[in-house]
Amino acid sequence: MSDIIAENVVVTINYTLRNDAGEVLDTSEGDEPLTYLQGFGNIVPGLENALEGKRVGDKVTVAVTPEEGYGEKDPEGLQVVPRDAFPEGATIEIGDNFTAELDDDEFVTLWVVGVEGDEVHVDTNHPLAGVTLNFEVEIVELRAAHANELAHGHPHGRDGHAHHH
Ligand code: ZN
Fold this sequence. Notes:
Blueprint lengths: L8 E10 L5 E4 L6 E4 L7 H7 L7 E6 L13 E5 L14 E5 L5 E10 L2 E5 L9 E12 L2 H6 L13
Antiparallel strand pairs: 1-2, 1-3, 1-9, 4-9, 5-8, 6-7, 7-8
Bound molecules: zinc ion (ZN).
């Protein structure tokens, strides 16, 4: 049985995320709760650490620093990319993200922050980089992960039977 949150446990939570100004950045309220696999970096490290050892029904309030969240903001992250560098016919909108391959076989995620004519302004910073993440979390459900979930490093839905590509 999985009574407490530990590595290899599939965790379902309700959560609300606010910035320091108290604005709601994201919430599961009015939506499906979030299901993730503990110990696999599915969620930011600061939240994963704060939830370790908790039980169903526990409520957790935690302020996650950028260092333990989406990182500090890199001022060098802003770049301008010609639109034709993107897949043909792709709709490109603010908030979208794309994966680009660097010269050395490494991949970087680019977030679209603006589109001006034939130029797309992208940022390597996650939109929440540099932001302190104030989470309020309630633990809804815990279960042991299935072998294929552990192999994939993520849960297959709350019940473990969701299919994906
Ligand atoms: Zn999978």
